[in-house]
Amino acid sequence: MSAARTGLWFLAVGGTAALTHMAVFALAQRWLWPEAANALGFGVAFLVSFAGHRRLSFHGAGTTLAQSLARFGATALAGFAVNELAFVLLLRVAGWPSWLALVTAMGLAAGQTFVLSRFWAFRR
Q1: Do 121 and 71 touch, CB atoms closer than 8 A?
Q2: How many domains does one find in the chain?
Q3: Along the 124 residues of the chain, how does pLDDT read in single tens digits?
Q4: Spatial CA neighbour of 122 closest among 37, 64, 83
Q5: Are 67 and 54 in contact (CB under 8 A)?
Q6: Beta-carbon contacts of residue 28 (< 8 Å; ≥ 6 apart)
Q7: Could you please report the per-residue DSSP string of 18-65?
Q8: What residues make up the domain containing 18?
């Protein structure tokens, strides 16, 4: 698959996962601290993201399902570490509204996730 097509699928799957993350966050923040709602949103969105990237963005990957899951799990956790750190700093230190902090943090983590996914988790 061409790099452009991979990139388009990555954006579509990533956008779907991001919307899932935000929807879970919106529902969960009523009952949980924002940081916990962010973590829950990540967990649900991870499932959407892995399935979509495995089947669409990086279809034909030269890794087994188990290898991709382990690698993508590590990639996603690294992305979530960046996400949660940025989220906490923007929310608690800078005093940003939770939605603005969430969207900004998710954007920072997305680039890192693409590079690690393309060249490691789903390596051809």
Answers
A1: yes
A2: 1
A3: 677 887 789 889 989 999 999 999 999 999 999 999 999 999 999 999 999 988 888 777 778 889 889 988 998 899 999 999 999 999 999 999 999 999 999 998 888 877 887 787 777 6
A4: 64
A5: no
A6: 36, 37, 40, 41
A7: HHHHHHHHHHHTTTS-HHHHHHHHHHHHHHHHHHHIIIIITTT-SS-H
A8: 3-121
